[in-house]
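pasting for the record
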Amino acid sequence: MPLTQAPRFQDLPGIPLSLKADVSTFVERMQELDLRVRDSSIGEDEISSVVIESLSGLGRAMREHVDSTAPGHDEVGKFIARWTRPWAMKSEYCWRAFAKPRGYAGDAETIDLIYRNEPCGEGRLGPHIDRWVLELDSSRAVRNRRAFLSSSIAQLCKEAGSRPLAVTSLACGPARELFDALEEDGTGQIRATLFDIDPEVVASLKREIEARWLPARIRAERRNILRLARRSNGTGVEPQDLIYSLGLIDYLKPDQIVSMLDWIFDHLAADGLCIVGNFRTGQPDRPLMEVVTEWFLLHRTPDELKELFSQSKFGTSKVEVLSDPTGIQLYAMCRK
């Protein structure tokens, strides 16, 4: 009996029939695939093809039916999650984003999983599901910001000439973009400070700094930027040429962002650069992130980012908002 005819599907009056059909198709295809995998009657290429086709169809259905502002959104989301999450959890990325072992979805290890882009997961299906998720535009956007920041730091090094370049990263996570920039900095020009609230992240960074023989050029500290923003002195941060944060303000309310921008302004050198990143409103992978992995972000438009700067000490300074190639990751940039 097709799932759409089963009593547990029939007794769901608030769920659109077309969505029931799409979810039923997904579940039935994955169940059939799982059986073939168990009896070893299918090769890896065919597994990949079925997984991609099935998940892509599910993704289209979710984009059509999941609207966080619509009545009944919670019921629709619960319905999709109930039937699809068991399959998604075979992906290492989806499992970690949902389980939140460090207390939040976008922890340093999750970001590193996206950066490494090496699919893994449970059994034979898991890596194929993981590969599909890691190739979503939202995952590409995260990888793109690593390259964007490292190239931005390299450009600032050129502009600085022979003088040192002071850089601070807020809520730095694995800070791969900074280590990338340091590898390219043959003159030892960069002097970097890394702040993160997670003690495990800071401990890991300190080990990596020691292993790379970089303690004279980079330091990592456990700091809460929101608490720092409430302090008028004693932060121990000298005027910086660049202060940036990507993947933080997506979780913050407007007043918190303005306080953070004020702190950044106060700790930038004259003509110093601030870069903050935010996922764009309307990004297509939001339904998957919210419904399946319960990874919630506060999405914003370029104009909303500019408005936040205008409410801060940056005032009327010119704000440039760029986008990565996927159109998902926004970079708001402003000089002091």
